[in-house]
Write a structure and sequence with these properties.
single chain, 145 residues, alpha+beta, Nuclear Transport Factor 2, Chain: A, 7 strands, 31% helix
């Protein structure tokens, strides 16, 4: 009976969701890092490459945006997103689909005016034709205490 308990305990430690997060696939981790950098740098080519053509964003104001609008916002004159760190990360991979998100203290400038807000977000990624693309994002503003 002791061997069975030991075997079950060992199996539980290696099972998904057992307290040990599996690392993201390297190509997904690289794509997610590139996407964050493209947002911070206002990199139109990077955003074009990483965002799916059928992309949908539900932004912090509850508005629905498409790929063109997302990119236009990030490359608009006078807009600059400061580098950020994702806190309380969420990373769930289901084959060729992944959910990546967390909490972010966003700061930057828009139209010359500084802004600061806290959001929770989730990006849905899909692997298409061998490449990871963001297909959907949901952003929720976190109320200030």
């Amino acid at each position: 009976m002791l061997h069975l308990r030991t075997a079950l305990f060992a199996l539980a430690l290696t099972a998904p969701g057992a307290g040990f997060a599996a690392p993201l696939p390297a190509d997904l981790a690289a794509a997610a890092h590139a996407y964050d950098a493209a947002q911070v740098n206002g990199d139109r080519a990077g955003l074009e490459r990483l965002v799916a053509d059928d992309y949908v964003l539900v932004n912090g104001a509850g508005q629905v945006q498409d790929k063109a609008r997302l990119i236009a916002d990030y490359v608009a004159p006078g807009f600059k997103l400061d580098p950020f760190t994702i806190e309380e990360p969420v990373e769930k991979v289901f084959g060729d689909t992944a959910l990546l998100g967390g909490r972010v203290n966003m700061t930057g400038a828009d139209g010359g005016q500084r802004f600061a807000l806290v959001v929770r977000f989730v990006d849905t990624w899909a692997k298409r034709d061998g490449q990871w693309r963001v297909v959907y994002s949901q952003v929720t503003r976190v109320a200030k205490p």
